[in-house]
Design brief:
By secondary structure, the chain is α+β, with helices and mostly antiparallel strands. About 25% of the residues lie in helices and about 35% in strands. It has helices spanning about 10-20, 45-55, 90-105, 125-135; strands spanning about 1-5, 30, 35-40, 65-75, 85-90, 120-125, 140-145, 145-150, 155-165. It is globular. Keywords: Ligase.
């Protein structure tokens, strides 16, 4: 599965690392952190998929994003529950997501109107622990998203970067 992801700054990764001890009881704890912007699907010709993504993003400006809270999905449409995440507020990222959904099929229940920008921390744990984590206050983290990554989900690696001009 290929996707377009938002790389997060070191401050977000440091916050996730500080929360790590409280996530140990979850089935899966993420070690790498980014914000999934749009799933693109599988491809026989990766270069063509990249080209379509680049074309869809042409002219997209750099946007502001902010981590505002810890939250959770109690009943996610895919995978084990709950999913604990860092909430990302960004009308600019939501607009870019909408542009990408015009160019690529939308995954029902996850994208389009159902899209919630976030950075997953852990999944498949105790709901009460997720609720306690969501009750915590965190210092907001704001940054400018000036590039996106074309992500290869099979190898869990960025394949290329897409610059967003200021």
């Amino acid at each position: 599965m290929y996707s377009v992801n938002v790389p997060v700054p070191g401050r977000v990764r440091r916050l996730a690392n500080r929360l790590h001890p409280d996530l140990i009881g979850f089935e899966t704890v993420r070690e790498d952190h980014s914000c999934l912007l749009k799933r693109l699907g599988e491809a026989d010709h990766v270069a063509q998929l990249q080209h379509r993504a680049h074309r869809a993003l042409e002219g997209s400006p750099a946007v502001e994003a902010e981590i505002t809270a810890i939250d959770y999905f109690e009943d996610p449409p895919l995978g084990s529950a709950p999913v604990v995440y860092l909430a990302v507020e960004s009308p600019g990222l939501e607009a870019i997501h909408a542009d990408l959904t015009d160019a690529f099929e939308t995954v029902e229940g996850l994208e389009g109107r159902d899209y919630v920008p976030h950075v997953t921390l852990a999944r498949g744990g105790d709901l009460e622990t997720a609720k306690r984590l969501a009750d915590r206050e965190i210092e907001p983290i704001r940054w400018t998203v000036s590039a996106l990554e074309f992500w290869d989900g099979t190898y869990k690696l960025p394949v290329s970067r897409i610059s967003l001009p200021a």
